Amino acid sequence: MEYIKKENLLRENPRELKVSIGSKVTLWGMVYKIRHMSGFDFLLLQTEKGLVQCVCSQGTDGLENLCENAAVEITGSLREEKRSRMGFEVDVGRINVISVPFAEPPLVINGKKLSAGQKTVLDNRAASLRNEAQRAVFAIQSETCFGIRQFLKGRGFTEIHTPKIVSGSAESGAGMFELDYFGKKAFLAQSPQLYKQMMVPVFGRVYEIGPVFRAEKHDTSRHLNEYTGIDLELGFVTDISQLMSLEWEMLSYAIEHVKSACPQWLEVLKTELPLTDTVPSVTFEEGKALIAQERGYASKDKNDFEPDEEKALCRAIKKQTGSDFVFVTRYKESKRPFYAMDCADDPSLTESFDLLFRGMEITTGGLRIHRYEEQVEKMRRKGLDPADFEGYLTAHKCGMPPHGGMGIGLERLTACLLGFENVREASLFPRDITRFTP
Amino acid sequence: MEYIKKENLLRENPRELKVSIGSKVTLWGMVYKIRHMSGFDFLLLQTEKGLVQCVCSQGTDGLENLCENAAVEITGSLREEKRSRMGFEVDVGRINVISVPFAEPPLVINGKKLSAGQKTVLDNRAASLRNEAQRAVFAIQSETCFGIRQFLKGRGFTEIHTPKIVSGSAESGAGMFELDYFGKKAFLAQSPQLYKQMMVPVFGRVYEIGPVFRAEKHDTSRHLNEYTGIDLELGFVTDISQLMSLEWEMLSYAIEHVKSACPQWLEVLKTELPLTDTVPSVTFEEGKALIAQERGYASKDKNDFEPDEEKALCRAIKKQTGSDFVFVTRYKESKRPFYAMDCADDPSLTESFDLLFRGMEITTGGLRIHRYEEQVEKMRRKGLDPADFEGYLTAHKCGMPPHGGMGIGLERLTACLLGFENVREASLFPRDITRFTP
């Protein structure tokens, strides 16, 4: 019998390299790039914090086995070097090559950006993600999540984990993936909507960041069939402006967090993150009018926005106010789900909102019905059978506070933040109508 | 056009009630329990922080509409009261009843514990979760997750989100849920194993906390068909003791975090969390010997542990060392997956470990194969076709550092921490072979 202690036995890079300038360090990482110069080699080492520039003079111990994509341990001294991105470089004393690749990568991965086409990039994800600009995207995505969690925790939200395998009585049969659950028909959850509502009387404020599945047959630059949903729900909310202010506080917090946590990754992507004190908010009808004005003609669909209309609205708002974001409120009742609360002053509209960001809808939210009879009545009106929602309606039966919430798509948020045209660029392993590998 | 500001418009309870003693407060919550006394009423208000005792004298404004499970706003003054659980109570001035329930709950939810049977409890989850002891379980689970995330972030791990819909070329066809993906056969991911390995050369250290799907036909107290996996993977690891120490540091950190963040919930459950400086570690063979000694007979299965053997081993370890935990190492190659690294000194064994906790396996981990040829050879040896794993093997082809990791089941961890016999007690909405509702 042996004993395992609480101790850090890992081989790891110093937390802050800068403070080690002038002293000897040992670094672990993957060799990103080697450039042979006359009399010495430049080596870029991929570490958690980004690429570290290393200089090996000829005859450096271990140099003979070195190649790109090798895993190495490098010992050397850290010296100031203003021309390197980090402001320092490693004068390499010894290289220990720990493992070497079997073959060249199927695409060039160590350029500033990937130059291959999207199919090649996605087919070879385990290679393409090693590119510096790709890593930057997902480092920023990870810190965005972290910022959002930190904000929500500070506001008293409890993290929950709700099931992704759901029975037929979920939100709506359309657009759901079906699966065989031990001989019974089950579905993949389109959103944690019903569960997060059920949790409001339990915890008051809840959130979940997890996978969401949409079997929609859209093959566009804005759709994924599996994405990461940031879902939150809270009690004692009676006005959507409370939710919109909450979201704006949260996004601002997350963006500020990314700015301070990821300067090196923002630098790699040459991106500036938008941040304003306020966001304009228009009603659906006002939005339609702005779109007609922007495009010079009125759209046929009076009940919803087409993707092109969302883009036109964002252009109009940007011109008028300078804002990259715009809230839209008072969507039509016919286009919103059964749990949406109708407007007291006009039951053909709902107490709902979307947040559009640089032409794309990134959030849908609103107030929900909390009274049992009202919910049952609206289900019937929409042609749904309340008996299919028994577990959910138990919450309403037993009493619910007025509540509301929202769902944000993490990949869309990331894509818009970084100015991408295609949401696939913000998904590690995107799933679309033609792709579910690797 | 209006403008939404970054401002907190929510109606929310004071962050720290204790500091408000002597002053007037407004609280929002659900009425958990009312006890009528002579001349006054006791009311327990469910808030995010736990139950707050409130005292209403007869004739208090709003009292006439009050009932259990109403959502209320209470204004009153906070005074010291040693006999109440929080050390204070609210002398109620006014009650504003915001919403009332439609019906009585289908089971008694405001006792100290639920007294209904498991089926009733799970069938009526939106009601039963409101019970104080149930809320305590999931508040503790949420803080466990928080502690783990905080620890991992501090150690340089990047959070990732990997797909749950995977192609046929996932870990193993057995025990996977199948679904129709736009006319093609797809599966639900049994674990993020292959993806997290692919991410090691990208970020060095990665983790994911997300749903994991197992189509296993076990109907036991230890199995869920969907659970929350805490998965991590890291590079430059060459010895499993590095991983075991890391896990022990992480669990100790999370347990300490729960102790400091959830004293009120631990009090509700009357639970003391185990915490020791070291954890014993035995090899699989030593484990078998200890089990034979404990049970008085040797088990027939020489290659794996039966659930009863894991229990017997934990009993033996507890007697010998006092520890609730035990690591087991050097599992048989035949029982571990294709990516497990074999022991250099005995290729019939693997560089792997499990962590057993109070009779139940809560973690499986180990070193993985990082060399391409070795991985391809082992796949063939195990009867797998490397061509089915092309996207995954791209990582090995392009070079990987030596690496390893582990997967922890959040529900099992919670259940063992809190001394539950059945893992379903640690799942908000459990999924088992007979249940996928609500």
* Assembly state (oligomeric): homodimer
Low-confidence stretches of chain A: none
- What fold name goes in the CATH topology slot of the largest domain in chain A? BirA Bifunctional Protein, domain 2
Largest sheet of chain A: 8 strands, mixed
What is the H/E string of chain A?
EEEEEEHHHEEEEHEEHHEHHEEEEEHHEH
Instruction: Give the CATH class of the largest domain in chain A.
Output: Alpha Beta
Mean pLDDT of chain A, as a whole number?
95
The CATH homologous superfamily of the largest domain in chain A corresponds to: Bira Bifunctional Protein, Domain 2
What does this protein look like?
Two copies of one chain form a homodimer. Chain A has helices at residues 118-123, 125-128, 132-154, 193-203, 240-261, 263-269, 284-295, 307-321, 372-381, 390-397, 410-417, and strands at residues 2-5, 24-36, 40-47, 50-57, 71-80, 88-99, 158-159, 165-166, 178-181, 184-188, 205-213, 226-235, 278-283, 325-329, 342-343, 346-350, 352-357, 360-368, 403-409. Chain A has 438 residues and is α+β, with helices and mostly antiparallel strands. Chain A folds into two domains: 18-99, Nucleic acid-binding proteins (OB fold (Dihydrolipoamide Acetyltransferase, E2P)); 132-426, Bira Bifunctional Protein, Domain 2 (BirA Bifunctional Protein, domain 2, 2-Layer Sandwich), CATH 3.30.930. An eight-stranded mixed sheet of chain A has the order 7-11-12-19-18-17-14-13, with helices on both faces. Chain A has a five-stranded mixed beta barrel with strand order 2-3-4-6-5. Chain A has a three-stranded antiparallel sheet with strand order 8-10-9, with no helix packed on it. The longest helix of chain A is centred in the first third of the chain and has 23 residues, at 132-154. The model of chain A has no long low-confidence stretch (mean pLDDT 95). The interface between A and B is large, with 135 and 135 residues.
